[in-house]
Each structure stands twice: as structure tokens, then as C-alpha cells.
Amino acid sequence: MKSLIRIFPKQAIVINLLLMLALASLIIGVTAPLITLEKMYFFENTVSLVSTIRELFEQQEWFLFIIIGVFSLCVPAFKIASLLLILNLDYAKNSFLDKTLHVIETIGKWSMLDVFVVALLLVSVKLGVLAKVDVHYGLYVFATSVLLTMGLSFWIYNLSNKRS
Prior knowledge:
By secondary structure, the protein is mainly α. The protein has seven helices and three strands; from the N terminus they run ααββααααβα.
């Protein structure tokens, strides 16, 4: 069976470019500063997703380390890599890539979990009297990556169904 890029070349080129943008946004989003927490006007701490995961590892908070590491780093990277393969390689119905596309669509509902957790953190800290939170560009870039990946997986899923 032909690849989606051969069947829908114009759309696939746009999708490939947007997937590269999603990957770049993911890399920048997890390494860039997300928030700065200022406590009692004296202590200031700027965190990124990677620094948070590293801190959880160092403090041996294994459950949070695994959950945040998997859902914030591994799953998004897996989704983008899989979508690139699904779009550009030949695969048949019920093949591994076809099943992977269905899994991506299923887990897509959980994609905003990371952004939701960060938003809850911001709300809980902003409600505190002694703390102030400033949001940085990393949060927006990370959210852009998540939203792009969700939209592109839906687009590829629809193209896959048209192909059949």
C-alpha cells in the first residue's frame, strides 16, 4: 500500500513541516523556563519541565518522576516520531503503524494533561498570599507543541481513513 505522502502529497508536505514545528516546540517547551516562583519577596525559583523532572529524580519522588517524565517527554516524542513514520512510510491496514495511529488517537485525549497540571500549579500558587508566579514563554511553546500534535494526529487519522 502507498504511503500517505504519495497519496496526498501537498497535505503531507504541510503536515511534515508542522510536525517539525511541533518537535521544535516540544524541545524548546521542555527546556525553556515555564514559571518563576517568588516567595516572600526574597526567594525566587525559575523552573522548566526538564529541571522539574531532574529535581523529582534527585529527591527520589519516583511516582511523580515517572508520570511527568512519561507524559511530558516520552509520549509527546513518541507521538511525533510515530506520526512522521505513519505519514512517510508505506504501510498496510492492520499493520504496526496502522495500529500505532489508532493508539495515538486514543491517547490523544490525555495530551493536555501536562498543560492542565501546570495550570493547576499556577492557580494553586497564585492563590497563596506569600507567593507570586510569573509565566514564561516555555509554557506557551509547550502548549503549542501539544495542540499541534493533537491537531496533526487528527488530520493524519482522517487522511488514513480516506486512503482505505
